[in-house]
Amino acid sequence: MHAALAEALRRRGGVRVLDLSVAEFNRADVLPTFLQSEVDVHGSHGLFYWLRARGRGTFVTSNDAGMMLTWRPDVRRLAAVRPVGDLDAVVALLEAAAAHAPADVAFVVRYCAEDVAARLRERGWTGMRGRWRPDAPADDETFPEVILTAPVMDLPGGQGYRPVREAVSRHHGRYAYRASARPLGIGEARFIRREAARAGGYDEHEAGFTAAVLTSLDVARHDWLTYHYLSRGQRLAGFAITANITGIAHGYYLATLGVPRLTTFFLWHIYLQQRRSGAFALNLGGSETASLHKFKTRTFPEHVLQQTTVLQPPDLPPTTAGERA
């Protein structure tokens, strides 16, 4: 479905279309910008788009804006994912996509920044009117992105950081942390598939995301990515991926063993490494569930929230699709 729309936009002119591929998505220049109206957003690296599209999508760009088109088969929706760029150019690109979308296919735009959402609402776009589908899994737009801005110190003070201090006290000396600009090839795939806390419990939607993560490890380019490892002896205990093109780091994948407070310990090491490498903050992304959002905001009390929105064009009839995808 997204391929048909991409071809229609290609014929329209003034738009460049690039099919998502393992050779292209990790390039730092795959979009004309990763900022939305000069403001950092969570989709600030091609890896974000690769994972959200489960490795199947098309980059669509103009001179001043870009986004990804992808088809989500489980809910039968054609989606424009995380549009970025000059506000007027973003709106023009989205309205062109909506105008050329197949008439019998529901079109939505996901991960709209606040200024994009406000402008689209002015032009008649609306929020989703119901659920995607009664049994459709939630995605990470359900709760706002959490951007960590904590002080850069090994043990932060104050009552609010007690969970961090307790995690460090419990696991310091037991687990070793290191970071690399490329995957180390020390059993990441085995860990993700068999040993991580969620292994064996992936639903279809999450399994597609995990498969896209595994594919991303074997590509030739890893522009502006950092791979984070937690180990105990020779055993991998945690693995994560962050990216930083804009000055703010973004967490795009994280898994640990099912050990109490190990995720907190790992996240704190990742945060310190990214800040000490020049990042101004660490964006942990949105959350699918209230419990995950609560974990992020209560564990790391100094943070900024950044909301994204799912919208549909003004002429889309009422559906049973959901406010959150």
Essential attributes:
Aminopeptidase; 7-stranded mixed beta sheet; 16 strands; globular; 325 residues; 2 domains
| Category by helix and strand content | alpha+beta
Low-pLDDT runs of 5+ residues are 317-325
Order of helices and strands: HEEEHEEEHEHEEHEHHEEEHEHEE
Identify the CATH homologous superfamily of the largest domain. Answer: Gcn5-related N-acetyltransferase (GNAT)
- What is the oligomeric state here? single chain
**Percentage beta strand:** 15-25%
Helical region count? Answer: 9
Number of strands: 16
The separation of the N and C termini measures 18 Å
CATH topology group of the largest domain? Aminopeptidase
CATH C-level name of the largest domain: Alpha Beta
Q: What is the spatial order of strands in the main beta sheet?
A: 1-4-5-6-7-16-8
Characterize the biggest β-sheet.
7 strands, mixed
Indicate the overall shape: globular
> Gyration radius, to the nearest Å?
20 Å
The tally of structural domains comes to 2
| Known CATH architecture of the largest domain | 3-Layer(aba) Sandwich
Give the proportion of residues in helices. 25-40%
Mean pLDDT: 88
Could you write a compact summary of the structure shown?
By secondary structure, the protein is α+β, with helices and mostly antiparallel strands. It has helices at 2-12, 46-52, 87-100, 114-122, 162-171, 188-195, 204-216, 262-276, 290-299, and strands spanning 16-19, 35-36, 39-40, 58-61, 65-72, 77-85, 107-112, 126-127, 145-148, 176-180, 225-232, 235-243, 249-256, 282-283, 303-306, 309-312.
3D structure, described in words:
The protein folds into two domains: 2-136 and 308-312, Aminopeptidase, CATH 3.40.630; 145-306, Aminopeptidase (3-Layer(aba) Sandwich), CATH 3.40.630.30. The relative contact order is 0.19. It is α+β, with helices and mostly antiparallel strands. The longest helix is centred in the last third of the chain and has 15 residues, at 262-276. The strands form three sheets. It has a seven-stranded mixed beta sheet with strand order 1-4-5-6-7-16-8, covered by helices on one side. A seven-stranded mixed beta sheet has the order 10-11-12-13-14-9-15, with helices on both faces. A two-stranded antiparallel ribbon has the order 2-3. It is built from nine helices and 16 strands.
